[in-house]
Amino acid sequence: METTISDIFFDLDHTLWDFEKNSAMAFETILKKHGIPVDIAHFVALYVPINSKYWKLYQDDQVTQEQLRYGRLKDVFDSIGYEISDDVIHLLAEEYIHYLPQYNHLFEGTIELLDYLKPKYKLHIITNGFNQIQFNKLKNSNIDHYFETVTNSENAGFKKPNPQIFHYALEISNSKRETSVMIGDNIEADIEGALNVGIDAIMFNEHNIEVAENIKQVNTLLALKNYL
Question: Which CATH code for domain 7-17+105-226?
């Protein structure tokens, strides 16, 4: 990095915490528990893009937290033609939130990277996830002790890429945008959101999607050592 960096802000889901793998395990648990005879692999494959769609709507304040949790499951069941009552969908939505943080697969290199960065920088989290759930993910995966502050959309009152959530994170961490960097997987929420407020950014581009040439990016977490 050209500027001396003092603070690093990480996104959590899809960046450090392997959301897709943990989500699949949570669904396997609750669908089997309730005897719902669907192909779990097919269910999860449909859920991934539908969940992304609803998170984008939530990010843009077009759906509420409750609508996100219900709608993403309803759409999957509709997609596979499985008839299920609203009451059961609401129950599954609650149980999914309960079980999800209990599975704690991290992306390869997460611990090694955090061990490398911790002595050199102050580390923080900025996430659009919900407060208690994100806290449980950090705690149960035993990485909470690496981070000095955790900013989420509930305590900040804004969601990435809204500039206010980044301003809030800088304020509570007593950091300066000029000496901070944001690392995340979402080009709009994490990367453009940070750059728009003057925070440098590096994209964790695991799937090697095409992005503008001026965007710093890595395909593995440990490749961040080349920048930091």
Answer: 3.40.50.1000
